Write the C-alpha cells for this entry.
Amino acid sequence: MKYFLFVVSVIFMSSFKPKVAEEKKLAPNVVIVFTDDQGYQDLSCFGSPNIDTPHLDKIAADGLRLTNFYAAQAVCSASRAALLTGCYPNRIGIEGALFPQNKIGINPMETTLAEMLQERGYKTGIFGKWHLGHLSKFLPNNHGFDEFMGIPYSNDMWPVDYEGNQVDKNHPKAKRYPQLPFFKNFDVVKEIRTLGDQAQLTTELTDAAVDFIERNKDTPFFLYVPHPMPHTPIAVSDKFKGKSDQGRYGDVIMEIDWSVGQIMNKLKEHQLDKNTIFIFTSDNGPWLNFGNHAGSASPLREGKGTAWEGGQREPCVVSYPNGFEGGRVIDTPMMTIDLLPTIAEITGAKLPELKIDGKSVWDIWTGKSNKSPHDAYFFYYKSNELHGVRYNDWKLYFPHTYRSLNGREGGKYGYPVNYDMNETDEIELYDLKKDISESKNVANQHPKIVLEIKFLANEIRKKLGDKLLNIEGTENRPVGSVEQ
C-alpha cells in the first residue's frame, strides 16, 4: 500500500511540474506604445482624412478601438506619471513638465508598472522618452526597468532654434538647456544636436525595441516605447519623408505606424502576438499653436494644455487575442490610470501597497460589462487645479483659465504662434453623447446632474485638494527630490 501511494505521488508530482512551467510560459507579454502630443484624429481608424496608418488600423479592426480613452493630464510628465503608477499625477506630486534644471522626479516610494511586473519575473525595457526626472535617482533603471535607451525629457529641451540651428551661449535657450542627452541605462552615450539627429530617433528606438523582444522572447516581458514624436520639433527619417498628404507631421505619424508594424512583426515571428497585451495611445492632445507641425483633435475642443476633450481624449487601440474577442468599438470612458490595475488583474501581479486611483477595466475589454468602474474621472491641470469632471456621458467644467487660439490658425513650419488666455466664469456642462465638440452649455437645463457632479468633485477635493478653491488634500504624496 505504501509503495502504491509512493508511485501515485511520483506520478502526480511529475504531471504537476510541467503545468507550472506551462503557466509561466503562457504569462502574457505587455507592450505599450505611447506617443507624444498626438491628436485624437491622427490615425486613419480615428478619422484622419490624410494620414495612412495601416498597422494601427489593423490592430483596431482585429482588437479594440477605445473611443473615450483619456490621458490623465494634458501635459508630458504628469501624464506619464499616471500611466506608470495608476495614480492621478497630483496624488504623487508630479505636475506639468519637468525641466533639465529641476531636481525632482518620481518618488522611490511609488510602485511603477515596471516594478509591479518585475516582481512577477518579467523582463522590462523602456525605449523612448522618460520625463519623470533626469537625475540618476529618478532614471528608469531605478524604477523597475532592466533597460533604458532614449532621452530623459522632451525633445525641444535643447539649445536649438526653430530653424534647427545651435544657438550661441548668450541665447536664452542656451542658458536654460544643455545639449539633449541620449541615455543607455545610466550613461549618456551621445547628444542629440540637430534635426538630423532627431530624424533618426523613431527608427533607432524601434530597432532597440525589436531587439529587446528578440532577446527576451522566451520569458515574459514588459516593453514600453514612449516615442518622443510627434512632439515638436518634428523630424522624420528619409524612408518616410514626403510620404503623407499632411506634410511632415503626417510623415512622422506614418513612421510611428511603421514602428508599430515592426514590433508586431517581431511578435508574430516568434508566435508571441496572440499572447501579448498591446496598447497604443498618446500622452495628451496636439500642440495646436504649432499649426501644420501639430496634429488634429477634431471634432474635439482645444488641445494640449487644456482639460477640454481635445486636450485629454486620445486615440487608443488594444490587442490581446488570447484574452478577449476583437473587432469591437468600446465607448465606455477609461483613462491611463486604469492600465496598471487592469494589467495586474490579467497577469496576477500584486497591486502597489500605496493607494492608487485607477481601477481594472478588464471586464469592459472582455465584454462582460459596459459600465465604468469609476463614479467619475477628474481632470486636474496646472498646479493642482480641478478644471473638469467626466460623469457618464456628461462633462462639467468649473470656472478656470485656459489657453486657446480662439479660431486662429497655428504657426507654420515649426514656428508657434502665441495662445490667448480665456477664462470661464460659470459652471459649464456638456452632453458628450450629443455634443462631442462641447459647443452647447446645458448646465441650466440639468441642475440635478450639476449637483451630482459637484458632490463628487467635493469628495475628490478632500482627498487631492484644489488650488482654485485653496483646498489642501489629505492624500497627496510628495514628489521625489534629491534631498530625500
About this structure: The chain has twelve helices and 19 strands. The chain has two domains: 26-374, 378-481.
